[in-house]
Amino acid sequence: MTAPDGYFTEENSAEVVAARTNTDNERLATCMEAIVRHMHACIKEIEPTQAEWFEAIQFLTKTGHTCTDWRQEFILLSDVLGVSMLVDAINNRKPQGASESTVLGPFHLPDVPELPMGSNICLDGKGDKMLIRGRILDTEGNPIDGVKIDVWQANDEGFYDVQQKGIQPDFNLRGVFRTGADGAYWFEGVKPRNYAIPEDGPVGQLMKALGRHAWRPAHLHYILEADGFDTLTTHIFDPDDEYIHSDAVFGVKESLMAKFDLIEDADKIAEAGMDGPYFEVVHDFVLARS
Ligand code: BEZ
Ligand code: FE
Fold first, then answer.
1. Do residues 30 and 135 both lie within one domain?
2. d(CA 73, CA 54)
3. The predicted structure's pLDDT at residue 5
């Protein structure tokens, strides 16, 4: 298709660009050839005006300018376009019976302190108390010993500690736990609520322009790591949440629903050592062998 003189035409545009590549890096060459081919096809389909193309460039420029050490607007863009979930799906094809993964999101922190099993991760006492428990199993149903469970959640106003520095204590509603031989985990947190992903930047403006809402259904985040098993990055979701069928970042999967039950029975309250009604969520995770 390349013109004999190598000049660029509307018809041969992608081939001319690809033909300039001269690298031993085969992966780079493959990726760039595909990206250029699809971009040119997209432009040929849309036929943007010069003004429209400049608006697109300005959108990407603003997206870059919105990024800081604490905020990654490009990841948010990838999330709302479903690209993060697609990359996640491609890289986490699981065997039958293993728990499914979902997006990491921008609010995970490394180096969160390890706590004794059963600890309360709510450091400011705000919100409806919730007991979270379950087991970590292999695909044959055996408990897994020594699983590192990294959990984090938004508070009952829908904010993570890192979004409310000076308002919430550092490491509020975060914890790392390790299972024993029975594979069991349990800890106390608060009933999470739904929240809107950051809407005050260019991605928020795009969502509005598209007539889309920015809400995520209430959830808890987990990263589960154990020797000999694939690391699992996932959530559990409240199936009764009003946004359960319209998550702004497409993270919901049927298998990740976990009922958030209100416990009012006096015997159960006493048995759990709680001082009044509380919510409870029970969910087992199954890890795939690596
Ligand atoms: C989160 O669940 O923390 C999240 C995921 C994607 C975008 C924004 C937030
Ligand atoms: Fe979240």
1. no
2. 19
3. 67
For residue 104, report the distance from its CA to the centre of ligand 2, in Å: 8
| Residue 67 covered by a domain | no
Mean pLDDT over the full length of the chain: 95
- pLDDT score recorded for residue 70: 77
Q: Which residues line ligand 1 (CB under 6 A)?
A: 76, 79, 103, 105-107, 197, 216, 249
Nearest to 149 by CA among 35, 63, 226: 226
User: What is the gyration radius of the CA atoms in the chain, in angstroms?
Assistant: 23
Distance (Å) from CA 131 to ligand 2 centroid = 18
Q: How close is the Cα of 258 to the center of ligand 2, in Å?
A: 15
pTM of the model: 0.92
Report the CATH number that the domain containing residue 131 is assigned in CATH: 2.60.130.10
In terms of pLDDT, which residue wins out, 169 or 4?
Answer: 169
Identify whether residues 129 and 215 lie together within a single domain: yes
CB atoms within 10 A of CB 173: 27
Are the CB atoms for 121 and 188 separated by under 8 Å? Answer: yes
Q: What is the mean pLDDT of residues 206-212?
A: 98
Alpha-carbon dihedral of residues 40, 45, 49, 53, nearest 10 degrees?
Answer: -50
